[in-house]
Specification:
By secondary structure, the chain is of the alpha/beta class. The chain contains 13 helices and 5 strands. Helices cover 56% and strands 9% of the residues. The longest helix is centred in the middle third of the chain and has 21 residues.
Length: 286
């Protein structure tokens, strides 16, 4: 069944679906492009069903779970994106010249930053910076592509303040989260906010009283339930674009905003430290 186009499969099984299953199918048929970008929680809320209903729906279609189903949606939808869709990017083709390809990628990256700016809540930024300023330790966490961004955040902040740490291994992240305290902050990067690792790490961190700042694209993801502050990044990323540069651009933009506001609020301290780190790095230059 999995080799069949997902739309044909949904049409075939539709008559045998439960009432809740038909609600899910109806929504996906009506929102073919949007659905492939949604977390399981977001889709369930839009359909007014439980997350478990979405999982059962996917298994009815022959998929092991929601992620496999969403990947099938992305593959089936790859040729369906219309130029009339304002959220669709121009598709890179084999016929494009290098400059044409570069222009399309540029448009994607700029759009990601623009969307992040439109989603920006100044109060959330101010509150996040206040948490970072008061923190004894700030742990920068993430997995996969988001783990790379977490390391970028640490590398940026460590030039101005010493309390930032980056732990890359997910097991070590869980251990650090399980022993943190109310004076610590978890700065977590997760585009989807819907991976097992995120929940495994944030659950003990919250139980210990640590503050959680989550940078994600989905405000209603499972991870969002553990966040004290949500900072939303732009760029709609389908499963076929996992780890895309555009998604990273949106997250990097948020880091840049946090860093500069942190330095503005702690000017003398951070300016002194940035001077010290610049002098230390100067010895590395030829």
């Amino acid at each position: 069944m999995k080799e069949q186009n997902v739309w044909d499969t949904m049409s075939e099984v539709y008559p045998s679906l439960t009432k809740s299953g038909r609600k899910v199918a109806d929504y996906i048929f009506a929102n073919k492009t949007e659905a492939q970008y949604m977390s399981i929680t977001s889709l369930a809320e839009e359909c007014r069903v439980a997350d478990a209903t979405i999982s059962r729906f996917c298994k009815t279609l022959g998929y092991d779970g929601y992620n496999e189903f969403k990947l099938a949606l992305a593959k089936a939808g790859a040729t369906r994106i219309s130029d009339l869709d304002p959220d669709a990017y121009d598709k890179i083709t084999l016929e494009d010249g290098i400059l044409d390809m570069a222009k399309k990628l540029y448009a994607r990256d700029v759009t990601a930053i623009q969307q992040s700016l439109e989603l920006l809540n100044p109060d959330d930024i101010a509150n996040a910076v206040a948490y970072l300023h008061r923190a004894s330790k700030v742990f920068c966490f993430g997995q996969g592509g988001s783990g790379v961004i977490a390391k970028d955040a640490w590398a940026r902040f460590i030039t101005a303040t010493p309390q930032f740490q980056c732990i890359e291994d997910s097991h070590m992240q869980v251990m650090a989260a399980s022993t943190c305290n109310p004076t610590d902050v978890i700065l977590f990067f997760s585009y989807s906010g819907a991976t097992k690792d995120v929940v495994d790490i944030l659950r003990p961190a919250k139980a210990r009283g640590a503050k959680v700042i989550l940078i994600t694209h989905f405000p209603k993801s499972p991870a969002a339930a553990y966040a004290d502050i949500l900072l939303l990044c732009g760029s709609r990323e389908s499963p076929l674009q996992s780890g895309s540069v555009a998604a990273k651009m949106g997250q990097l933009f948020i880091i840049d905003i946090l860093f500069n506001e942190f330095c503005r609020k702690n000017w003398e301290f951070t300016n002194t430290n940035r001077g010290l780190t610049s002098e230390a790095l100067a010895t590395k230059l030829l």
